[in-house]
TrEMBL record:
GO terms for molecular function: ferredoxin hydrogenase activity; hydrogen dehydrogenase (NADP+) activity; iron ion binding; iron-sulfur cluster binding. The lineage of its organism: Bacteria, Bacillati, Bacillota, Clostridia, Eubacteriales. This is NADP-reducing hydrogenase subunit HndC. The keyword Hydrolase does not apply. Keywords: Iron, Iron-sulfur, Metal-binding, Oxidoreductase. The gene is hndD_5. Its EC number is 1.12.1.3.
Length: 405
């Protein structure tokens, strides 16, 4: 994440956890399941001398296979699932069915969530209760996948490849073992056991002596290995908003959205604060905003507190430009600049534009997980497994400040 003196993610230095993963891979009794975040596939190639933004999705999968991961899933799948849950929550808030305040704030960026817990605890009810895509995937690995494939969840070691250092904190939140409530008395493990950054994965690939550039493309495993274009653009600022707009339209009208909603250009680009108006028959005009960088978030949160923010839904990412240039992404070959961020973003938009399916609810594996396991968005089971709670950390911050004096 965006690390300043008071780094909200506690991620000022990156902890190298590759050894833990090598150990799990070497243990024949353990099923090692991995997921890859949207932005990792457009960053990893740069560690192997490829041009900025090269999409190496297939090579990344192939490299994970060669390293010995047993099952390879895609976080793009749970990005779609997040949209189903968070989009449903938004529609319920807007229609007054859910007694929670507007604007709804996104909750998939742990740096941002912790920032709210520290500095704006009074806005915690505005945060979507939906877990991040990473945590949803981890939860489902140890429940849905375990049940379908008859694997003991205690023998699953769940790894997440992320563009982000703050995700290392997120997976250790005590709320993130909810998947295994029924195993409470046993030694439960977190839903995501280890988060590796894109750079750490590059290190593993190099240590294993894999010739990355010449790998033939690999394929994700099924069940949770397919994402739509909407899931892919989660990796750049504005992507969650575009994905949510497409789905919200569908959830309210039952129809595919009009062309302007497929490419919601006002929320694209590297500006710190962007906004747009979305018209959805049955709801009317919905005002949305997209923020990247925590300094920009502060200004908007103060506006909400003062009661003069016009928006219904706001996406916030701690890193300027979003996850494509998160704290765990390659940087040596491409120091941070808007040009580099735009090139990485362009690669994600290309994945979306080329995708056969561009709407989260059209994802066949999303239909399957609801039909076979979760019932419906925000069902009792979905609430239990895919939603979470937040805590005020205002006093923690005050305590830390006085310690430092
Ligand atoms: Fe992590 Fe993305 Fe948030 Fe940055 S914007 S802290 S990479 S989740």
């Amino acid at each position: 994440g965006q690390c300043t003196q008071w780094c909200p993610s506690g991620a000022i230095t990156e902890r190298d956890e590759t050894d833990k993963v090598f150990k799990a891979l070497a243990d024949p009794k353990v099923t090692v399941v991995v997921q890859t975040a949207p932005a990792t596939r457009i960053g990893l190639g740069e560690e192997f001398g490829m041009p900025v933004g090269t999409n190496v999705q297939g090579k990344q999968v192939a490299a994970l296979r060669k390293l010995g991961f047993d099952v390879i899933f895609d976080t793009n799948f749970t990005a779609d699932l997040t949209i189903m849950e968070e989009g449903t929550e938004l529609v319920k808030r807007v229609q007054g069915e859910l007694k929670k305040p507007l604007p709804q704030l996104t909750s998939c960026c742990p740096g941002w969530v912790k920032f709210v817990e520290y500095f704006y605890p009074e806005l915690i009810p505005n945060l979507s209760s939906a877990k991040s895509p990473m945590q949803m995937e981890g939860t489902l690995m140890k429940t849905y996948y375990a049940e379908m494939k008859k694997v003991d969840p205690q023998k699953i070691f769940s790894v997440a490849i992320m563009p982000c250092t703050a995700k290392k904190f997120e997976c250790q939140r005590p709320e993130m073992v909810s998947a295994q409530k029924e195993l409470k008395d046993k030694n439960v493990t977190p839903d995501v056991d280890v988060v590796l950054t894109t750079r750490e994965l590059a290190r593993m690939i190099k240590r294993a002596g894999i010739d990355f550039a010449n790998l033939p493309d690999g394929q994700y495993d099924q069940l949770m290995g397919t994402g739509t274009g909407a899931g892919a653009i989660f990796g750049t600022t504005g992507g969650v908003m575009e994905a949510a707009a497409r789905s919200a339209y569908y959830l309210v009208t039952g129809q595919q959205p009009p062309s302007a909603l497929w490419d919601l250009t006002p929320v694209r680009g590297m500006q710190g604060v962007k906004d747009a108006t979305i018209n959805i028959p049955g709801i009317g005009n919905m005002k949305v905003a997209v923020i990247s960088g925590l300094a920009n978030a502060r200004t908007v949160m103060d506006q909400i507190k003062a009661g003069n923010a016009p928006w219904d839904f706001i996406e916030v990412m701690a890193c300027p430009g979003g996850c494509e240039y998160g704290g765990g992404q390659p940087r040596a070959s491409a120091p941070p600049s808007d040009d580099v961020r735009n090139r990485r973003a362009a690669s994600l938009y290309q994945i979306d534009a080329n995708a056969k399916l561009r709407n989260s609810y059209d994802n066949p594996q999303i239909k399957e997980v609801y039909a076979d396991f979760l019932t419906a968005p925000m069902s009792e089971k979905a609430e239990e497994l895919l939603h979470t709670t937040y805590i005020s950390r205002a006093s923690e911050f005050t305590a830390k400040k006085s310690e430092n004096m």
